[in-house]
Design goal:
The structure is a homodimer. Chain A is an alpha/beta fold. In chain A, helix 1 links the parallel strand 1 and strand 2. In chain A, helix 1 packs across helix 10 and helix 2 packs parallel to helix 3. Chain A has 2 domains: 165 residues, NAD(P)-binding Rossmann-like Domain (Rossmann fold, 3-Layer(aba) Sandwich); 98 residues, Dihydrodipicolinate Reductase, domain 2. In chain A, the strands form 3 sheets. A 7-stranded parallel sheet of chain A has the order 3-2-1-4-5-6-14, with helices on both faces. In chain A, strands 8-9-10-11 form a 4-stranded mixed sheet, sandwiched between helices. The radius of gyration of chain A is 22 Å and the shape is globular. Chain A has 11 helices and 14 strands. The interface between A and B is large, with 66 and 66 residues. Chains A, B: InterPro entries: Diaminopimelate_DH_Ddh, Meso-DAP_DH_C, NAD(P)-bd_dom_sf.
Amino acid sequence: MIRVAIVGYGNLGRGVEKAIKKNSDMSLIGIFTRRKPETVSSEGSPVFPMAELMNKKEDIDVCILCGGSATDLPEQTPKLTQWFNTVDSFDTHAKIPEHFLAVDKIAKEHQKTSIISVGWDPGLFSLNRLIAKSILPQGETLTFWGKGVSQGHSDALRRVSGVADAVQYTIPNDEIIERLKAGEKLELTARDKHVRECFVVLEEGADQEKIKNEIIEMPNYFSDYDTTVHFISQKTLESEHKQGMPHGGKVLRVGETSEGMKQVYDFSLDLQSNPEFTASVIVAYARACVRLADEKVYGAQTVFDVAPKYLTQLSDDVLRKDYL
Amino acid sequence: MIRVAIVGYGNLGRGVEKAIKKNSDMSLIGIFTRRKPETVSSEGSPVFPMAELMNKKEDIDVCILCGGSATDLPEQTPKLTQWFNTVDSFDTHAKIPEHFLAVDKIAKEHQKTSIISVGWDPGLFSLNRLIAKSILPQGETLTFWGKGVSQGHSDALRRVSGVADAVQYTIPNDEIIERLKAGEKLELTARDKHVRECFVVLEEGADQEKIKNEIIEMPNYFSDYDTTVHFISQKTLESEHKQGMPHGGKVLRVGETSEGMKQVYDFSLDLQSNPEFTASVIVAYARACVRLADEKVYGAQTVFDVAPKYLTQLSDDVLRKDYL
């Protein structure tokens, strides 16, 4: 059995707890939190104060770090990698090289293995961007995100005077995707690739037309996009737009293998729960982390460094027989 | 530069010749054929008789074996792996374990690296079946093939008395795919997953209705499928259905990460040229083969054993900075 600790228990940690239950070769030693354990209601797994983590050192094969990328992981991943094999989902793209170097140094010094920036983007999408480009050197790769809720854009809506509550979905522009797949060469900015759909609850007496215009014309957020605004009740917002955390997206590469010979590579995810799926990816890579550590492959790794066979509990023989 | 030899020069070998031109770190030493070299017209690359291969041993980093799976590769891959790093596209699924063992033994004895069964299925599709299953342990994976020409079914049409020529397309059943993505649990046989479309040229005086019924009711090939038959002229068949070799398909996994929480993983290819795309995959893995040999990772490998970073000429630093 692979013995796992969850460090940090928000949406992602909760997803990891569920994912471990789906993997018969894994057991959860516990959830470690900075909050008071008695205030944390897990789904049946033991909850410990963070300080307890070191006492359970010998019982843990890998720590899955479920903190945030802004402040938690830059500190936690290097620190905990002194004592544990670790997996994190560090997703501040611009700071990944720096984070990698910090973790790699510690991991090599202490003979530990750490896989950083795991999830679907960064993660599976990164993998597909690399594979698609390697196979089709001539071509263009585009990443689309959604349909999913954008927290930043939802916040921008809620700051509009007269808006009581709101949710904003980022949606890939299907027309653009179809034209790309058909082989059209398009010069696209991020703004051409997505449309924005807003579900807005008004405060009593607010001016619907005025608010709609204010949203559609809001610079940076909406003015350059094809934006739709729907006015709905708070009840509908709660029941239809605040349940679950759907997301998804697509890595599309359209390449040519010879003059005019078009090849379309399309990797798509459609997720009812973003944190649960991210957690499921992380748990598969936690298995890889432990197996790599067993093989003394120490240091920081990313999804690019991990051979796919390490993700599964199936033997190499079974893989060749049933999966190839 | 990675110095490559192409062994065997049919559609696949021709695709490899084109793919090498798209990869700036590769040079083609030559095409090696059992035919008389003067009868082979390459796209500008030197053509040598097979016997010349051994004389060029010191000039070659990897041989890409482009023979057939039925008789060529079971003999050629083990034999040539005595002297060369090799990549093949052995695709007789049932015999892969046996082929792997034969090649692995030779490769280890002679300190060579061989990546077998590379392409898109087996190959990229295998990779996605494995990754999808590892991430979503609870769920179901289905592979769909097409739209593409099935040689066996086209042959069956041509054997019908009164048929002058014909082409048959296997087409994934889109309705089934949409129902699966929507989360329906379906018990499917191979036959539910695809529909068949036939383009038939009649001999003069042939009875169209009779032939149509004979096709639709043909056991094994058509009777259990939703089959459409179009009668067209030889000229249309030549111009619209015998140019290029389109193919493609889809690996679809619909899984649940918790009760009722559906996650859809979809990897799709839409290829205007099946052999050119297969060749492009093989060329990327030929790069991996040489890099693994440089790291003394000897023996037979499959796509499951190869970390994605080996497929590209980009450095690990660039990958982390720009692709993660």
